[in-house]
Amino acid sequence: MIPLLVVARIGRAGRRGLPIWIPLFLIWLLLAPLALLLLPLFVIGCRVLRVRPFLALSVGWQLLCGLRRTHIEVATPAASVALRFL
Amino acid sequence: MNENHRQVLQMLATGQITAEEAERLITALEKDQPMASPGAAESRHKAQSKYLRVVVDADDDDGPVRVNIRVPFQLLRAGVKLVSLIPELAKDKINEELAKNGLAVDVAQIRFEDLEGLVEHLDDLTVDVTEKQRKVRIFAE
User: Cα B99 to the chain's mean position, in Å?
Assistant: First the structure.
């Protein structure tokens, strides 16, 4: 399943910052029609580069699904950033 | 040795039970776990590991720096599949750039199966590097 939400925290100087909930599912809904429109161009691009389009789509989908439950957190004295894909 | 066995041995060591009782308890525990073959514990551990964790703790001049990254194995497996998507045209350029940086690797010879095997064995990986002011840990969980 693809990630539906991202919780981002951006803080300064030792503070964690407030969590910002980014609803990815809305972005996916908006991008879905665009992706359908761009699909023929994608297939042509794959043909030019001699890449199998179905394989490319499959790997792209798996990468997207794999992002779920990824957690990245970097904290320095000046700032901190945390991203959590849900 | 699992937690139950350890408890039984501790009870034996402290004199709470006799050696015969300990033997009976251990036998009963082993009957309760018929699938506990030597490889079962390992495979159970492998089945449980879902993430690769990278934790860096450092004390720089400006103050402490902490990096905490948790990457699902699913993402790593999908990532290695990208190898099969490298266009033939790009492989020569990648090889040239790698050679410039001292890596004599032929990207065309990297097989997805090998990389997937590598990811599978990351499960057993634990890297623990400790310097004066830096500590890096990479492990599966």
Answer: 30
Q: Could you read off the pLDDT of B16-61 as tens digits, one per residue?
A: 777 777 777 777 777 666 544 545 555 555 556 788 899 999 887 7
First to last CA, chain B: 20
Cα–chain center distance at B71: 12
Residue B9 belongs to a domain: no
DSSP 3-state assignment of B111? coil
Residue-wise pLDDT for A16-71, tens only, equals: 778 899 999 999 999 999 999 999 999 999 888 888 889 889 988 999 998 989 99
Structural domain including B79 reads: 34-140
What's the structural domain count of chain B? 1
| Domain ranges, residue A85 | 1-13+56-86
Domain count for chain A: 1
H-type alpha helices, B33-87: 38-48, 73-80
Is residue A82, in this structure, part of any structural domain at all?
yes
Residue A62 at interface with chain B, using a CB cutoff of 8 Å: yes
Min distance B84 CA to chain A CA atoms (Å): 9
Nearest neighbour of A51 by CB, restricted to B70, B75, B85: B85
B18, part of any domain: no
Residues B100/B88, Cβ–Cβ less than 8 Å? no
ipTM over 0.90: no
Q: Note whether residue A74 is domain-resident.
A: yes
